[in-house]
Design goal:
Length: 117
């Protein structure tokens, strides 16, 4: 077995394990089907765009949460954008986890904000 065949086999095995763990889903499979010889880097480009956009949104969430008076509408909008792009991609369960952590962490603050408003 030559090196290219071994690498391809490793990629297939790794992809299969990510599907089994629920990290990848059918959306990723559909994305792979769109890649062809005319655009061999299609999946890598889409994944790269997703990570750049996610990094931007996470930075915006961080900035919004660092404000003295947190605008929860703004935070919620950023989380919603992140969740939306993730649902079209592959990492929805990670976003659900992040969203739940944000809710658990900020619920007492949000509750006080609502009660005292």
């Amino acid at each position: 077995m030559d090196a290219v065949t071994r690498l391809h086999r490793q990629l297939v095995d790794y992809s299969n394990s990510l599907f089994q763990e629920g990290i990848l889903d059918n959306q990723f499979g559909h994305l792979q089907q769109l890649q062809d010889e005319s655009n061999p880097d299609f999946v890598a480009e889409v994944v790269n765009l997703y990570f750049k956009d996610s990094e931007r949104l996470l930075n915006e969430i961080t900035v919004a949460l660092d404000q003295q008076n947190v605008d929860f509408t703004k935070v919620g909008g950023h989380v919603h954008q992140l969740k939306g792009s993730s649902s079209r991609f592959i990492f929805l369960h990670f976003i659900d986890l992040i969203e739940s952590k944000i809710i658990v962490f900020f619920y007492p603050i949000l509750y006080l904000y609502i009660v005292t408003a």
